Amino acid sequence: MFSYRWSVKITYYTNTDDTVRHVWHSYEDTESRINVEDHTWIKLNKDQIGYYRVNYPEDMWQSLTEALIANISVNKKKVLIIFWKK
Q: What is the domain partition of the chain in residue ranges?
């Protein structure tokens, strides 16, 4: 059908740095990598700008779960919506 592709701004922050940073995922690429050091979890798509989903590796899901339980500053509503639809 359609093969539309767009470049997407990916925002993120981690448990060790709540500064929201971003990288651009080019429409020409099939994957993007974000390198951060000394973190337990990384939260992508801050404030869910745009319509795209993020799927994390199992160990990252576990870390986000632990952060939610510990009441650490993670956008709980949006992470729980992702969990529910996963």
A: 8-85
